[in-house]
Amino acid sequence: MVGLGTASLPRASTGSSRYAQLFGRAGSVVKLVLPFVFVLAIWQASALAFGLSNYLYPRPALVLRTFGVLVAHGILLSYTETSMWRWFVGVGVGTAVAIPVALAFSFYRPLARMMFPLINFFTAIVELAWIPLFVLWFGYGFKVIVLSIGYVTFFPVLANTMSGIGQIPKVSVQAAQTLGANRLQVALHVLLPGSLPGTVTGVRTGAGYGFRSLIGAEMIAAQSGLGYMIFESRANQLTQRTVAGMITIGVLWLLVDRLYLRSIERATVERWGLVRKAR
Amino acid sequence: MASALSGAGRSYRHDSLAATPDKCTLGRVEVKEVCHEYLSPTDKTPVAALGPVSLQVSAGEFLCLLGPSGCGKSTLLMIIAGLFNPTAGTVVVDGVAVTGPSRERGVVFQDYALLPWKTVRSNVALGPRLAGASRREANQVADEFLELVGMPQAGDRYPHELSGGMRQRAAVARTLAAKPKVLLMDEPFAAVDAQTRGVLQEELIGIWARTAQTVVFVTHSVEEAALLADRVVVMSTGPGRVQEEFPVTLPHEDRFSRESATRVAEVAASLLASVRTAQPRRPRRGGSWSG
Prior knowledge:
The complex is a heterodimer. Chain A folds into two domains: about 1-50; about 60-280, MetI-like (MetI-like fold, Orthogonal Bundle), CATH 1.10.3720. Chain A is built from twelve helices and no strands. Chain A has helices spanning about 1-50, 60-70, 75-105, 110-125, 125-140, 140-165, 170-180, 185-195, 195-220, 225-235, 240-270, 275-279. Chain A starts with a helix and ends with a helix. Chain B is of the alpha/beta class. Chain B has helices at about 75-80, 120-130, 135-150, 165-175, 195-210, 220-230, 260-280, and strands at about 30-40, 45-55, 60-65, 90-95, 95, 105-110, 180-185, 215-220, 230-235, 240-245. Chain B has a six-stranded mixed β-sheet with strand order 6-7-8-3-9-10, sandwiched between helices. Chain B is globular. The two termini of chain B are about 35 Å apart.
């Protein structure tokens, strides 16, 4: 009996772990979907309870149909593409400017101290406040939107890259110096890769800010894109499109965060064993 | 193992990278009246941590700096490396005053200081890369030095995947691959377990016998000093000064054998007696780099 018991034990445990795996996967899907189903149910129930018109309070069924129409006309795909491209370029521009500035600041600490109040000052000025001037200078469209996304991306990338550089052990820099590295080589081989955990955090934060900025800027300064659709649909008495646009934004962000930003982190910081230090 | 070295045994095969044609006559270190002060963290008054210290290391000599905690031996090493500026005095290597860090003076740090974002191979290849070698050349040099330290398979791994002993081997390989005239080692084996330490010490002597570089090796272990050094400089605290010098005449190749264990132990015992008298009379706090 004892022999049988011990013999059957491993089989039982693999069986249960397989169950756990299956349940785990299904469970995680349920956990992901359940809150959304809950919100959807409240939406439907409240629409019935309030009895408002579809113009004032579009119902789920109508919004779903609207998605169908938007997809069929190619509007949704084209606007999504336009918006995502603007966002991507904007985040890229903001990051590309912030990293050299962070390196310069870390090389010339007095400069950094001098510049911090100025940086703080501009951080406080929300990018939407710039848009009137941006439009005046660049007209409606791509440049203005990219600029405002780049603007909001710049600050968190700068701050987090700086703090990432601050966390590099001094001995790493010294090691490079005793191997013959000059300043530029220290920046290239030590500061830049060493600050990457910070930079990645900054880009994630900045990309989030930029994503909101995208919609705001498109409402004001664009003739296309999801922000434009959300804002203009009300004027055209198509509030269901506004809601469809809102949902699209949310879903896009979920996808971007899962697929794109997480994978950047995995490809770099986690492989180097830095992630425990970074968090 | 021998593939990293030419038949002459004294100069490296990659002559384009070897800065020094004959290591035997280069790597002479003179420390002249060096002092170091640091500001006390409590009242910001200067505290003398080191000196004045004067000593000379001949080309190809293996010198151990030995002393109790707070004697400033690590500080002195960092000053020789050019990573610290002395408050007074100069360090001269082959007639040229030290003004900052340079690849002439390679350092093996206590906590390895491998760059975690580079593979072991890229870490070791860094010195040649910085000196202008192509990636292929540098990687080839790196592989040779990894073989020299007995880890030819580890090139593609990242430092965090290695044990402490392996990391320190890689750190030694990295420093050697930059072809320094002087090898500065700051308690390099203090963080590894005793058994690994013994292996690493013997390997280091094996490598040194072939490269014939000048080595300045900081340790607080009398046994380690007795096993490795041509000459041991015992330092005292408050502020750190040279207390006594011991030439160790036992042939290097014999020191790790069981037969000479008692003679090595005798050397260690006399070193220990000297270190005991070098202990501070009252406890005091050393500088940030005090070993």
